[in-house]
Specification:
single chain, about 375 residues, mainly beta, Cathepsin D, subunit A, domain 1, seven-stranded mixed β-sheet, about 10% helix, globular, Aspartic_peptidase_AS, signal, aspartyl protease, Peptidase A1 domain-containing protein, hydrolase
Length: about 375
């Protein structure tokens, strides 16, 4: 169920880029007026930014993926080299959980929002195979650790700079750190969607930030961390911690270990797994279930609880068409099964309700409630 969960590569954390290796001991910084930002869109099945590159082309539907670390465009309309483009003579080949992309590699000037770098590796796709619910799609920008892009470019054995690495290397930002506000599908989240490079916005934070060490489970370069427990109302539906969890903005679902997924169905009379076509299966509650009587779900980590109400974990009917769901009166949720891949995968349906901070240099991730 956890599709687009990142590249299937077995790599090692020791490949951190030299662009920020010297900054590993610095603490995360709050944003200043100099920190560049980029508008972030929530388009139901994907989070997107606009990328300008090539022959002054703007690609408006580039998926923001915390589960990978390569930048490529050209899925819908072809990349055209411009005056700043330099053909490397190499090709790229990237595989995701569902689909892949291949093409030519360039070094080019790339602008995302108010952030610009002049020497960025970028893939110009000439062949893609990706889920139809992502259409329209122009490409991917991966904002995980650069180790996950090693061996994806022919002729280069090690990792190459991510867009964030290049921002640090070219002096645009001081630290390899970024933060994200995901606009909620229900339109009730505070503020517009935004990625902030080089810091975080303390004005958006209520209470303490829950800082967690990024773990190296399964030798993947994901934003993985340990969670203490998961509760559905008063019932603990997970094993005792530490639990293995990670964020994946390239995946929309609230994916749970199969045992937790089945536990929710046992706790709500009439709940069952419902097939929604290529995207897999989600939990659906019966039509006669009252939202007022359904419990909230809480994720415990770093001494804090992050809680979603039924109104937040139930899929809005406006999303049904994207996933081929016929409105039969049942309450379809964002809960999917991660099998035994992880105890929890926090996709965009979770990320839209909490502020998230990604500290590459210190290998930490932070979450906070919105102010």
């Amino acid at each position: 169920m956890a599709r687009l969960a990142g590249l299937k590569l077995a790599l090692f954390f020791g490949a951190l880029s030299g662009a920020y290796a010297a900054r590993l001991v610095k603490l995360p910084v709050r944003a200043s007026v100099a920190n560049p930002t980029a508008p972030l869109g929530n388009k139901i099945s994907k989070l997107t930014v606009s990328v300008t590159t090539g022959n002054d082309q703007t690609f408006d539907n580039v998926l923001v993926d915390t589960g990978s670390s390569s930048l490529w465009v050209g899925a819908s309309s072809p990349y055209v080299p411009g005056p700043n483009s330099k053909a490397t003579g190499d090709t790229f080949d990237i595989g995701y959980d569902e689909g892949d992309a291949t093409g030519l590699v360039y070094l080019d000037t790339v602008t995302i929002g108010s952030a610009t770098v002049t020497n960025q590796y970028i893939g110009a796709a000439n062949q893609t195979s990706l889920p139809v619910d992502l259409d329209p799609l122009d490409g991917f920008i991966g904002l995980s650790f650069n180790g996950s892009n090693a061996h994806t470019i022919s002729g280069i054995d090690g990792p190459t700079n991510t867009f964030l690495d290049s921002l640090v290397e070219e002096g645009v930002i001081e630290q390899a750190l970024w933060s994200m506000v995901v606009p909620a599908l229900d339109g009730q989240q505070v503020g517009e969607g935004e990625i902030l490079f080089g810091g975080y916005d303390a004005s958006k934070v209520e209470g303490e930030i829950a800082w967690l060490d990024v773990t190296n489970e399964f030798d993947q370069f994901t934003w993985a961390f340990s969670m203490d427990g998961i509760y559905f109302g008063d019932s603990q539906i997970s094993n005792d911690g530490p639990l293995f969890a990670y964020t994946d903005s390239g995946d929309i679902w609230l994916s749970l270990n199969i045992d937790s997924y089945l536990a929710i169905q046992k706790l709500v009379p009439g709940a069952a797994g419902a097939s929604i076509g290529p995207a897999g299966e989600v939990i659906a509650f019966p039509a006669n279930a009252s939202l007022a009587d359904l419990p909230s779900i809480s994720y415990s980590m770093a001494g804090q609880n992050f809680t979603l109400t039924p109104e937040q974990y139930i899929m809005p009917s406006s999303a049904y068409a994207t996933f081929g769901i016929t409105d039969d009166g049942r309450h379809y949720t964002w809960f999917g099964s991660a099998g035994f891949q992880a105890d929890a995968i926090l996709g965009q349906a979770w990320l839209q309700y909490f502020y998230s901070i990604y500290d590459v240099g210190n290998t930490k991730i932070g979450f906070a409630n919105y102010a």
